[in-house]
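User: I'm designing a mutation panel for DNA-directed DNA polymerase and want to avoid disrupting the core. Could you give me a predicted structure to guide residue selection? Please restate the sequence first so the numbering is unambiguous.

Assistant: Good idea. Sequence first, for numbering, then the predicted structure tokens:
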Amino acid sequence: MARAQANPGISWRELTPQPLILLTGSEDYLASRAFELLRSQASQREDIEVTRLDASKYEPGELLLATSSSLFSSANLVEVHELAQMNEYFLKDATSYLKDQAPENVLIMHYSGGTRGKKLIDAIKAAGALIVNCQPVKKDAEKIDFVQAEMKAAKRRITNDAVKALVAAVGNSLAELGSSCSQLIQDTTGTIDQDMVDRYYGGRVEATAFKVADAAISGNAQAALRTLRHSLGTGTDPIPIVATLAMKVRQLAKVLGVNEPAATLASELGMAPWQVQQAQQQARGWKRSDLALCIEEIANTDRMVKGGSRSPGYALEHAILFISEKAPKR
């Protein structure tokens, strides 16, 4: 018999007030957005009181007090943070509350994971809690979906190239990606295109690294060197640029000679479909033997920039020239 799949939960964007809500996952930024959304919805009511509790520093009776009606409110929104570090006092009081819930209240708790308090988590789920997915967003495809959802919520249009450029520039941190979306929405008008993204974030290490790598593997040594020298001249560390070069060349090697659809290859290779499509286009004309030589050159360059050379910049320039020379003439 096949095992039932665990409920991954709804998106925080779909969240509406419910008597019992459990945010699951270690992405604090998504949890903070969920808390913020409910808080905003609660602020539209005059008869609801908002209380924040820390489960790791909880004092006996706090939950009972927070969920009780008062002269000033007939309902309560209670936020519980640090559920994964809950103490025994919270465990006891929360277990009691689950047995006698007040349906007019909204109790929202964030559980980042772990084994502590697992019986309570199971009890919360069994009590019919709305599960909200706050798992880390790691894949570029998921980050692209996040950016597009941010723009859709703000009723702003953004081109596909602009989305990819933004993810490449600030995609390491979801919180930073969200902040960047907010800045573009507030500071620009009309359709957000790649030029706008480059204007705001084109100087970022990640964005620069991809521009250098794309120019090199396309055989455009002049553009790659110009971008690299400007970047190094403004204090950019060469290590992430080497890492991006390595990633891009390995992606070419993975897709070279493979004719399967991008959507099929994406899951097999751990890449987003658009990354596969881009790599397939860039791989045209490349020889596998030349890609192998480029990978060796990048590995040597990596050692050089990490202490093996007095001039990391020169070593990186040498690698870019080497890759550009091996690139097929278009």
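For picking mutation sites, this is relevant: The chain is about 55% helix and 10% strand. The domain at 208-326 is CATH 1.20.272.10 (Zinc Finger, Delta Prime; domain 3).
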